[in-house]
Automatic annotation (TrEMBL):
It comes from Kyrpidia spormannii. This is 3-oxoacyl-ACP reductase. GO terms for molecular function: oxidoreductase activity. Transmembrane segments: none annotated. Belongs to the short-chain dehydrogenases/reductases (SDR) family.
Length: 237
C-alpha cells in the first residue's frame, strides 16, 4: 500500500513496484482523481491494483482503508504536502494539519498495517521523511518537526517490530521535482538546486528506486535506517 499515490513520489513508487511485479493498493485523497490514471498505468504491468481513497490524517478513514485487506507485505507512508509559514504567523490549524497528515498519518497507517504484518511475521514499512526533518528549515518549522517525528517513529517501530520480522526504514528525500515543489515556481527550484552538491533536484524515480530497495530482499539486514536521497545535501558520518 502506498499512501499519496496519485502524484509525485508516491505515483513513481507505485509504478516502480508494479514494474517489479507487486500488486499494489493506491491511497490518496478523494479529491485526487489522478490516482485512477496511476491505476491504469499500474495495471499495464499485469499486476492487480486497488484504489482506496481516504485522508490519512483521520484515524477513522485509515481504519476503513484497511477493511477487507487480509495480507499486506509493504506499506509506504508517503502522503504529504508542503506549505511555508513564517514561524510567528504559524496558526494552530496550520501546525495541526501538518503534524496530522505527516506524523499521525504514518502512525495510523503503520498501526493498522502492523496488525496484519505481525500475523504474517513479516513486513516492510518505508516512511517518506525529508532532509528537512534532519536539517530543519526556516518557514517550515511545522513540516520539519513533523518529518523529524517520522524519523523517530521509524526508529522506535524498527526496534519494537524487529522480533516479528517487520523491518522499518525511512527515506529522506532532498528537493525532488514533483508537483509539490513545481508549484512553488522556477525561481524556488533554481534556489533549491543550488543548495545541493549535485546542483539539481531529484527525480521521483530516484526516490522510488531506493524505496523499492528498502522493500526488497536486498535490504534484509536494514532496519531503523534513514536513507538520504538528497544529492549530497545531508552527509552524516
Ligand atoms: P505531491 O504533492 O506530488 O504528492 C503528494 C500526494 O499526497 C498527493 O497526491 C496528495 O493528494 C496526497 N495527500 C496529501 N495529503 C493527503 C492525505 N491527508 N491523505 C492522503 N493523501 C494525501 O508531493 P510529493 O513531492 O510526491 O511528496 C510525497 C512525500 O514526499 C511527502 O510526504 C513529502 O513531504 C515528501 N517529500 C517531498 C520532497 C520534494 O521535494 N518533493 C522532499 C522531501 C520529502
Amino acid at each position: 500500500m502506498i499512501t499519496g499515490a496519485g502524484s509525485g513520489i508516491g505515483k513513481s513508487v507505485a509504478l516502480t513496484f508494479a514494474e517489479k511485479g507487486a500488486n499494489v493498493i493506491l491511497n490518496d485523497l478523494p479529491s485526487q482523481a489522478s490516482v485512477y490514471q496511476v491505476k491504469e498505468r499500474v495495471e499495464r504491468h499485469g499486476v492487480q491494483c486497488l484504489v482506496k481513497l481516504g485522508d490519512v490524517s483521520s484515524s477513522g478513514e485509515v481504519n476503513k482503508l484497511f477493511v477487507g485487506i487480509e495480507r499486506l507485505d509493504i506499506l509506504v507512508n508517503n502522503a504529504g504536502f508542503l506549505k511555508e509559514s513564517v514561524f510567528t504567523e504559524l496558526s494552530d490549524d496550520e501546525w495541526d494539519k501538518m503534524v496530522k497528515v505527516h506524523l499521525y498519518g504514518a502512525f495510523y497507517c503503520a498501526r493498522a498495517a502492523v496488525k496484519l504484518m505481525m500475523k504474517q511475521r513479516a513486513g516492510r514499512i518505508v516512511n517518506i521523511a525529508s532532509d528537512l526533518g534532519q536539517l530543519g528549515c526556516e518557514r517550515l518549522a511545522h513540516y520539519s518537526a513533523a518529518k523529524g517525528g517520522v524519523i523517530a517513529l521509524t526508529k522506535s517501530l524498527a526496534r519494537e517490530l524487529a522480533p516479528y520480522g517487520i523491518l522499518v526504514n525511512a527515506v529522506a528525500p532532498g528537493g525532488t521535482l514533483t508537483p509539490l515543489v513545481e508549484r512553488l515556481g522556477p525561481e524556488y527550484v533554481a534556489e533549491e538546486s543550488a543548495r545541493y552538491p549535485l546542483k539539481r533536484l531529484g527525480r521521483p524515480e530516484e526516490i522510488a528506486n531506493v524505496v523499492a530497495f528498502l522493500a526488497s530482499d536486498d535490504s534484509s539486514f536494514m532496519t531503523g535506517q534513514v536513507v538520504g536521497v538528497n544529492g549530497g545535501g545531508v552527509m552524516y558520518g
